[in-house]
Specification:
The structure holds 2 protein chains of 2 kinds.
Chain A lengths: L2 H33 L14 H10 L1 H8 L2 H4 L4 H5 L8 E4 L2 E4 L4 H4 L4 H9 L12 H9 L5 E2 L13 E2 L2 H11 L5 E2 L5 E2 L1 H4 L10 H5 L44 H4 L2 H4 L10 H7 L1 H9 L22 H5 L20 E2 L6 E2 L14 H7 L4 H12 L5 H35 L11 H22 L3 H33 L3 H15 L5 H5 L2 H15 L6
Antiparallel strand pairs in A: 1-2, 3-4, 5-6, 7-8
Helix pairs in contact in A: 2-3, 8-9, 14-15, 19-20, 19-21, 19-22, 20-21, 21-22
Chain B lengths: L2 H8 L4 H8 L2 E3 L11 H18 L9 H10 L4 H28 L8 H24 L3 H15 L5 H9 L8 H31 L16 E3 H26 L24 H9 L2 H16 L1 H11 L5 H22 L3
Antiparallel strand pairs in B: 1-2
The chains are: A mainly alpha, B mainly alpha.
Chain lengths: 547, 348
Amino acid sequence: MTLETKRYVIGSLGFLFLLSLVFVQWMETARKAEEAGLRKAQISVPANSKACVDCHAQANPGIVSHWENSPHARKGIGCIECHQASKEEPDSYLHYGEQIATIVTPRDCSRCHQTESEQFAQSHHAQAGNILASLDNFLAETVGGARMNFNPHSPTPGKVVDTVNGFANAFSGCQQCHGSKVAFQSTDGGMITVDDLEPDENGLPTNLDAVGRIVRDDKGRPRFEAGTWPNTGIGRLNLDGSLGSCSACHSRHDFSPRRARQPENCGKCHLGPDHPQKEIYEESKHGVAYRDLKDDMNLDADDWVLGVDYAAAPTCATCHMSGNLRNGGVVTHDPGERISWTNRPPVSLVMDTDINHQIVKEIDPEIRRSLIHDTATDKRNRMKEVCSHCHTPDYVNAFYTQYDDLVILYNEKFAKPGLAIMKALLDQGVRSKTQFDEEIEWTWFYLWHHEGRRARHGASMMAPDYTHWHGMYEVAERFYMGLIPQAREMADHAIVNGRRRAGNAVNRVIDDILARPEHVWFSEGAEKQAAVIRDEMERRYGSVDGN
Amino acid sequence: MSVGSWITDRLPVSGEQFRELTNEPVPHHLKRWWFALGGTPAYLFVVQIFTGILLAFYYEAAPATAYESVRYITEEAAFGWFIRSVHKWAATLMIAAVILHQMRVYFTGAYRKPREINWMVGMLLLICTLMTGFTGYSLVYEQLSFWGATVGANMTDSVPVIGGFLKNMMLAGESYNQRTLSRFFIIHAAVLPVTMVALITVHIMIIRLQGVTEFKFKDEGDGEDKTFNFFPDHLYTELIIGLVVMVVLSALATISPATMGPPADPLTTPEIIKPEWFFYVAFRWLKLFTGTAAILSMGFIVFIMFAWPFVDAQIRRRTRFQEASVWIGIVGVLAIIGMTVWEAVVKH
């Protein structure tokens, strides 16, 4: 072989080597950029989901795009793994050769995420659908809507409206957060829900008659009752008997841990006049730090353990769910595990819970002790573990003293007395059993459900303006200027109408409450206290004339 | 008194002797740049020493601090990202240049008598270069570099008889521990560079003693000089290559700077473990042939590469296949390229 030939051999192989080197470096650089989180990971579509992806990339490119950016896609989890269903499942149908179901329930997710599903099932989140039988829902279904369809009373130009859906408020309002009772359309014109299907422990229906009545289209696809689906409420009552919806927090189809870690995610539901946790958080130092230091939050970390992966600021997930250095990085999907007061009801309760995660309301200490499975102290200690990453024990304990004091003040000064007055009115027949048909019922509802919660939640998450001006200030105004005068007026009205005993009984309850030291200023004045305050102001700021 | 005479009064080297020392006659074919690739790894080696010293100012070789110190270099130290990126890319180019140089030497038969020893010195330099790359990547202490080192140590363990000892020496214990990183650091920043300086010195000394292999191409006339001066003619060629390499290095460091993966987590095995690209071929080989068989066959191939001048001499003496080495080389290079690309393409 001549030197010239060898020259070409060296040249060709050298070129090929350099070419391969460029290619390999390209792949290597891409791989490292993915590891560093600087570039989207390359994903390969699992074979059994290829047809789904190909078709839906045309029909619903957003769905496919979200999935492509998901941890599922990176781990080779495709469409079928989540949407697969057996023929026995009432919502399943044959879709281009695959038996699937549209709605993915926590039972489906538990095939891979068993621990998370079990934790979630025990949480208050999973019970959020209980609102369907609560006072709030009476407001939405009856007061704000109607528990029926009724005829429109005048035409709507440009649109044919032949019936008004009285449940629309509940469907689009309450149930989008709390969860709907998912329902099929029934051939008899009604609805078929989990109550009709009577699923067994595997989630399969036992009432085949109900299954037979499900309305299906010409492709065998079941028709859902539009008001109940789409719905990603966190306490959704699913057709397989499971409760909740994982996508309430882990939005489909990207299931982004990053998003679930951010307060905006919780803010879909935890906001507004009755439970403004999102706004309270934003006002607190925690929220301020988060906004400023979001770039340092390492939100894309695999585990996201406080004290290991980040420490810049806490989010909702940090305190209530995520792992931390002190607890070994253990995540919980039951936010109640670290909450020591429930501030949801009119009177706050200590979160001692029984074996079924229900709050123990027993008063007798012995019986109470025997029922408690997880104490409020244990729950608080779990939360303190989180706090201790940034605060000393003295600081944390003192905060909890401030918080406890505020909740107890609210309970004792306004909530329990308010409850007693409302009870007296009802017991004496001075107000009707029907809720919200008398002004005082609205007054009371505003007091505890809106303003009282704002005060308590504000104190729980260190938002002073919500604690006082949006909270206790409005509670007090509602109590003294609304509830008391209205109750007095109803009692006096009863007396005038010949029901002296009932009216006097109500007045006695009010008198007893207002005679208490903390209320006495209202009936007897508080000039002495006001004078002390005035003197103090003058000492500090000089004359306060005109104020 | 002139500066020149001031120096020659104190150092017994005359200008004439110095010129003779530097003006080694260089064969004409070295005017072709691809014959001058031997100087490129040497140049890149100097770049590595320089950038390596700068990085060592900040690097802390302990599991608790290593990753953070590399992060500090990459994100906070002035020009730290650039120095680290140049160091990383110079390592890649150095290995590539060594391989290209070796390919040229191999296919032109420049390893044949009397240059067998220098071939083996070159092989030692190749192994030292790869070892330096391996230990250097491990120092980052990110998830993949940690697990790459662990896999590498386990591979060493598969070597019969001495495997356990080698692994123990490598990791400073039975498994990755507090002392492993400092050991890697000393090997990477002291043992291997000093060894390489010694080997490079021997490599160049042998070249000077034997002279560079002379080739004559068709397009060279008979009347031309067979050689030209090292200084300044060949030095210019080397300088041009050096400057081009520096431009390429700067461009690569800027366009694709060194990144930080997740920190090492000894309790979590990553889904995908990949070594650095220059071990892809070995990694793929291990996947094709499992366990001790893979290690032994790989060791055998390395041994054959070492002893190739003698093996080739036997083939040429005992058979009629005088150009067998070229064909074996073509198959070998294609296999190496093929397996490297294969490993780069597949996820697992």
